[in-house]
Protein: TetR/AcrR family transcriptional regulator
Organism: Candidatus Pullichristensenella stercorigallinarum
Amino acid sequence: MSLPDATIDGRLLESARRHFLEKGFLNAQLKDICDDADVTTGALYKRYRGKEELFDALVADTLREIEESISQRAGIDLHTVSDQALAGAWVNTYDGVMEWFSFCNARRDGFVLLVRCAAGTRYGNFLHDFCSHMTEIDYQWLVEMQRRGLCRTDIDARELHVLLTAYWEAYYEPFVHDFTWEEIHRHAKIMCKLFNWKEALEIKL
């Protein structure tokens, strides 16, 4: 009795990754994915229901790690944060910007799949959903600064969402457009000048 081929899953996922990155979810064909993996469609359907489950498997770790990162920020008790730390959270430093770029780059394929290749999947609105989630968290930080009289008070959650969408787009677009790591370093320096939150929010510290 022959043993099951333990390499099938790995070959399928690697082939799917290549096809989704090259063609996007909508244009990638299951037959091509299977042919390149040297796997029958029957073997695929024993493991996955179709293209979307393959896509889910490829982005699952990236999504989980993003959620963990967001949860850390959301779990902070703002009443225990000093004025200086509260205001400092809005200061864009080169090291701070590069920290998030490094996070993205370490999961580059997963990020590119989510921000460039996900049309037709349940992640098609990934960026909007991510920005909405981040706005909910960052708005609490803004409200706390406003409560303490540390910044302007006329920016509401809706406007902050618009501003943060532009901000996070600046993080994700370099991955959409295949920036090299050197180009990302240069872009990060420009971002620090472009998104001057201290001036925009009129932070007093």
Summary: The radius of gyration is 21 Å. The mean pLDDT is 94. The chain has two domains: 1-48, 60-200. The first helix runs from residue 8 to 27.
